[in-house]
């Protein structure tokens, strides 16, 4: 079993509130718009990190992390990207790919809007953790926490941090 902390859109911001939850996870996943490599360095000092780059990320981050991360953890297939859309409105780049080989878990960021939606057509769970940073239009900073045990995703929690 793995305990996952999922965040996105930190935009160079990391604080003790985020780090408190990092310490409780087995892995941290970042769905892009990291903002600075220092954010990743801080996270990696505490836990293993999987990440993708976002549209605001510089060359240093883009050289370190991919546009798409596709992997299997326990027995769950995962696809994480920054700009992915969501069920019924997947991004044009994503749409044909997700239909041809859907993962069990599809993760995106970018919108700063926390969403968890099950795509019944493709049998895919979509997660967007919202934004953990202070930059953007969102009012509350958010993250997601969940567990993966064999082929099951469970104990999903929305984490609301303070207002930005």
- Radius of gyration equals 14 Å
SS-based structural class? alpha/beta
Secondary-structure element string:
EHEHEHEEEEHEEEEE
Helix content: 10-25%
| Spatial gap, N to C terminus | 33 Å
Main sheet properties: 5 strands, mixed
| Oligomeric assembly | single chain
**Low-confidence runs of at least 5 consecutive residues:** none
Query: How large is the count of helical segments?
Result: 4
Q: What's the mean pLDDT score?
A: 96
Can you list the strand order of the major beta sheet?
A: 3-2-1-11-12
Estimate what percentage of residues fall within beta strands. Answer: 35-45%
Number of strands: 12
Q: What is the general shape?
A: globular
Can you walk through the features of this model?
By secondary structure, the protein is of the alpha/beta class. The protein is 18% helix and 40% strand. The chain has 4 helices and 12 strands. It has a 5-stranded mixed beta sheet, with helices on one face. A 5-stranded mixed beta sheet has the order 4-5-8-10-9, with no helix packed on it. It has a two-stranded antiparallel ribbon with strand order 6-7. A hairpin with a 2-residue loop joins β4 (68-73) and β5. The termini are far apart.
